[in-house]
Amino acid sequence: xxxxxxxxxxxxxxxxxxxxxxxxxxxxxxxxLTILPAEVAVPVSGSAVSPAVLVDVNKKGTxxxxxxxxxxxxxxxDGVDLGSVERHLRKRIYLFGxxxxxxxxxxxxxxYRLNALFVRTKDILDMHPQMPxxxxxxxxSEDGLNNEYHxxxxxxxxxxxxxxxxxxxxxxxxxxxxxxxLSHEIAHTIIDHYFAIVPSTKVAEVLxxxxxxxxxx
Length: 217
Description:
Blueprint: E1 3-5, H1 15-31, H2 38-41, E2 53-59, E3 64-68, E4 72-77, H3 82-88, H4 106-125, E5 134-139, H5 142-153, E6 161-164, E7 169-173, H6 179-194, H7 201-214
Parallel strand pairs: 4-5, 5-7
Antiparallel strand pairs: 1-6, 2-3, 3-4, 6-7
Helix pairs in contact: 1-7, 3-4, 4-6, 6-7
């Protein structure tokens, strides 16, 4: 099972970032020579940001509530402060379209923001593969997130977010979610679905970190 952890959890010095600055543009150019066939790599129709629709307010007995945004099925654990999540998703200023309508409910604002991150990330990578709807699971606590990571990976380390290709799911928590972390993980999902042969972890990290560097351009 492939598990991809956010770059911020794995690198603490500047050397990887220097490598990214040097090699990411070059690799991005070369990489397009190894894309999937055209019928798989064409842009998804209707790529404009669409508002989220709350489809399940209270999934009784499961402890989770679902939001359907069109691009994502978001599941948040009971007790998650949606206002805090929404604020964490607005830590950086992006120049990629209007803000969510003021009269939209908090679930809609979260979905709107994540849809915008998804579209922006595809545009930065210039990769528009056909993809299944992705899942995002938001835990109330970092402990819950880390326990899930340990169960799936066998690694006891702490993480801010991670992506499991086999489950088509991103995992994060109320305290660790942010626009930077999510755009990085979303980039991994796009990269994995764009290439006929999934790139190595190091190559994927270079491309995903390139997104984080340019998300505010």
